[in-house]
Structure to design on (256 residues):
């Protein structure tokens, strides 16, 4: 199967911004007791399921609650690339992305903020970009959640997170509902899991129990159902390919 090409084109008037495979690490997850938040495999997979674009500038921004562009003030405290501006008004802080991203035919880019990384006073807006055909760049936008609050972005902070997706998966999906008893094998497996979960949570109260020694059930992390059957496909860690640096011409200027 040919690779699904994902290309970052350098523009003639700006260097490519820093783009890297997303990290599964989060500060708040590190701060949980014994880093227990990392036991939630869906969280860590989501954290790393894409690429990050980082700002290289340091800024302070605040919004007075008004609808105009001038109602949002941006103060640059350290110059650098991927700097935000007030462009749309309505409390929206805009990071122009100085690159043209293109994905494979039939795919689009999910563009938003880093998953599971809340920022006080401001929230990332999410977009779907048809990057398989569009010659346009896009902006990454964050909207203030309350006025009169200073928001800071520091150099090296992730301001944009993206990954390709196949829109046909949602468009072609046929929603359905049915009682779980209609699938006897699935119903039995689910019932076994619920009983196991209930027993485990009860046993956790006993300091001498095996459940207390284990700390948490690892069936999902191992990709196993309650019967011990392994899933045919199961991810415990994502290793995305990095973007290479742009090629350089013999004269020393980036190739176009």
């Amino acid at each position: 199967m040919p690779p699904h090409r994902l290309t970052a084109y350098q523009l003639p008037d700006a260097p490519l911004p820093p783009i890297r495979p997303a990290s599964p690490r989060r500060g708040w997850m590190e701060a949980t007791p014994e880093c227990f938040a990392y036991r939630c495999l869906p969280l860590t997979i989501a954290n790393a399921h894409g690429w990050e674009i980082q700002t290289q500038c340091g800024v302070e921004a605040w919004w007075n609650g008004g609808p105009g562009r001038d109602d949002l003030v941006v103060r640059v405290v350290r110059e650098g690339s991927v700097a935000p501006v007030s462009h749309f008004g309505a409390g929206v802080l805009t990071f122009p992305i100085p690159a043209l991203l293109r994905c494979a035919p039939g795919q689009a880019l999910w563009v938003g903020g880093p998953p599971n990384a809340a920022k006080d006073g401001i929230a990332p807006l999410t977009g779907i970009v048809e990057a398989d055909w569009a010659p346009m760049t896009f902006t990454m936008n964050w909207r203030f959640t309350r006025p009169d609050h200073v928001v800071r972005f520091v150099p090296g902070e992730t301001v944009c997170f993206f990954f390709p997706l196949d829109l046909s998966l949602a468009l072609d999906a046929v929603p359905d509902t049915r009682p779980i008893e209609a699938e006897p094998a699935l119903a039995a497996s689910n019932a076994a899991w619920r009983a196991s979960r209930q027993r485990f949570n009860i046993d956790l109260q006993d300091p001498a129990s095996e459940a207390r020694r284990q700390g948490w059930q690892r069936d999902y992390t191992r990709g196993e159902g309650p019967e011990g059957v392994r899933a045919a496909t199961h991810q415990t860690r994502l290793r995305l390919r990095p973007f290479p640096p742009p090629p350089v011409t013999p004269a020393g200027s980036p190739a176009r």
The first strand starts at residue 7 and ends at 9. Residues 184-203 form the longest helix (20 residues).
